[in-house]
Design a protein that fits this description.
CATH architecture: 2-Layer Sandwich
CATH class: Alpha Beta
Number of strands: 7
Strand order of the largest sheet: 1-7-6-5-4-3-2
Radius of gyration: 15 Å
Structural class: alpha+beta
Oligomer: single chain
Order of helices and strands: EHHEEEEEEHH
Number of domains: 1
CATH topology: Alpha-D-Glucose-1,6-Bisphosphate, Chain A, domain 4
Length: 142
């Protein structure tokens, strides 16, 4: 599995940051390649929802499940379908704001993309991680 890690300080209270990132309905606001969030069921550990992720122009559908939910500290999801991934969010209070750290481990389906496209897709995911962090900061500080 490939891995991407990003950290960013958000000048907002930790409870506001946690509430925002742990609500799947918000993903389309901060994650540019998510074109659809649907069928949100439950809350906290065990919550499930469907999504559509565009990778190299291809729409890949999948389902995410919340594996860990520790309010204002940790939020972990696992996705299955077009791309298998695990998202591990850790929040820490820092100087009146919140340090947000996210580690994403993912596996790209090579038969879907092919070897050359796989490298391009990995570059897209790296850029998306930077944009997602910046979007979360801008939205929550705005």
């Amino acid at each position: 599995m490939a891995k991407v890690e990003r950290s960013i300080k958000v000048n907002a209270d930790i409870d506001k940051v946690f509430a925002y990132i742990s609500n799947p309905a918000n993903e389309m606001e901060w994650f540019a390649s998510i074109s659809d969030i649907r069928d949100i069921k439950g809350q906290g550990v065990g919550q499930k929802y469907g999504y559509t992720f565009k990778l190299a122009g291809l729409p890949l559908k999948g389902e995410s499940e919340v594996l860990e939910y520790v309010p204002n500290k940790r939020y972990v999801t696992e996705s299955k379908g077009g791309i298998k991934s695990a998202w591990n969010w850790t929040l820490t209070p820092e100087d009146g704001g919140t340090l947000v750290n996210v580690v994403v481990e993912y596996s790209i389906p090579v038969p879907v993309l092919g070897k050359i496209s796989e490298k391009l897709a990995m570059g897209q995911i790296e850029r998306e991680a930077d944009l997602a962090a910046a979007n979360i900061k801008a939205i929550l500080e705005g």
